C-alpha cells in the first residue's frame, strides 16, 4: 500500500481512487438531505458501507473530506474558465451588453467562478448549506486571488491591500446571493445574475481597462 | 410590575431599564474575550450578579439579548445618518472624489450603515465574532432595504427582485471586509474603505443619478 500526504489539503492519499471517490460521493449524497455540521463520520461510514478505519486511510476529519470535494469542484470550474482574467472580464462586459434581459448568455465560460458555481450540476446544491457556502467562498478567494489581484492593481491603480480587500468584497457578496439564485429557472437566474455582474464590472470600470 | 412583549425583537419588556442595560453591558463585556456561541445564560448571570429568573424577565434566549444589543447599535447608526438615501449617496461620491487618498473624510455621516459600524466605539468589536457579524449584516439589510431598494429601482431601472439582490450583495460584501478593517489605524482604514465605497458607487452609477 502506498500512502502519502497531500500538503495542500492536508488529506491522506491512497492508491485506491475508487474508494476515495465512493467516500466523496457518499458525503455529497448525504448533504442533499442533511446539514454538513450534523453529519458524523460513523454515520457516513455506515452509509458508505465501509469500516471506520477505511475512512481514516483517506481523511483525518470530515472537514478534510469536504475540502477535497470543494477542491474537485473548483478544478472543474478552472477547466471551464479562460486563464487570462483581464481580457475575459472585458469580453464578459461586452457580451452582457449585447444580450437582452431575458436572453441566455452565449458564452457562460466568461462568468467568474462564484457565478459559475451554480452551473455545476453535481456541486451547486452545496451553496445551500450555511456552513459550506462560506468555505466555498473562502476557497474561491484563495484560488482566484493570485490571478485577479494583480489585474486590479494595474487597471485600477490600486495598492495590493486595496485590491485584495476589494476582491474579498466581490467574492463574499457574490457568494451571499448565490443561495437566492439557486432555485430559480435558468432565464430568471440569468436576469438577476446579469444585474449583479453589470454592477461589479461597472464598479471595476472594465470599459476603461487596457 | 408591568410586563409586555416587544413584537419586533420577541424580547420581553420590563419597567426596570437599568437592569436591562446592565444585562446588555454584561454580554458586551463578555464578548470582548469570549465567542458568542460559547456564552451560556448561567455564566452571564454569574458575571452580572443576577438570578437566572431575572434574565428571563427580559429575554427568552441569549440570541434575543444579542438582537436587542444589535438593534441598539443600529438605532445609534440611524441617528447619525441622513434620512434621504438618494441625495446622500451622490453627496458621498462627490466628497470621496474631493478628498485625497490619505486624507480623512470631512463628513462620515454620509457613509452607509455597514461602513459606519466601525465608528461605533461601543459596538464595533462585535464584527470580529464570526457568528455575530452575519447577524449584524442581516439586521442592517432588513432595516435599510425598504429605504434603498426603491431608490435602486428608480435610478437603475431595476425590478424589485433585482434591486433586493443587489442590495444583499452590497451589504454582505461590506460586512465581509469589515473584519479586516477593524484593527487598522484611522487613516489606513479610510484609505481602504474609500476604495470599496468608490467601487460600490461606481457600480451603482451614482454620478448619473437624478
Strand share of the residues of chain A?
A: under 5%
Question: How large, in whole angstroms, is the Cα Rg of chain A?
Answer: 19 Å
Give the oligomer, counting copies of the same chain as homo and different chains as hetero. Answer: homodimer
Query: Could you give the order of the helices and strands of chain A?
Result: EEHHHHHHHHH
Q: Helix amount of chain A, in percent?
A: 55-70%
Mean pLDDT of chain A: 88
Uncertain residue segments of chain A:
none
Tell me about the biggest sheet of chain A? 2 strands, antiparallel
N→C terminal distance of chain A:
53 Å
DNA-binding region (chains A, B): 40-59
Protein name (chains A, B): HTH tetR-type domain-containing protein
Keywords (chains A, B): DNA-binding
Domain HTH tetR-type (chains A, B): 17-77
Can you tag this structure with a few keywords?
homodimer; 210 residues; mainly alpha; 2 domains; 9 helices; 2 strands; 61% helix; elongated; DNA-binding (chains A, B); DNA binding (chains A, B); Homeodomain-like_sf (chains A, B); HTH tetR-type domain-containing protein (chains A, B); HTH_TetR (chains A, B)
What would you say this structure looks like, in words?
- The structure is a homodimer of 210-residue chains.
- A two-stranded antiparallel sheet of chain A has the order 1-2.
- Helix content of chain A is 61%, strand content 3%.
- The first copy, chain A, has 2 domains: 3-66, no CATH class; 80-208, no CATH class.
- The model of chain A has no long low-confidence stretch (mean pLDDT 88).
- Chain A is an all-alpha fold and 210 residues long.
- Chain A has 9 helices and 2 strands.
- The A-B interface holds A 158, 161-162, 165-166, 168-170, 172-177, 180-181, 191-192, 195-196, 199-200, 202-205 and B 158, 161-162, 165-166, 168-170, 172-177, 180-181, 191-192, 195-196, 199-200, 202-205.
- Chains A, B: It comes from Veillonella ratti.
- Chains A, B: Residues 40-59 bind DNA.
- Chains A, B: GO terms for molecular function: DNA binding.
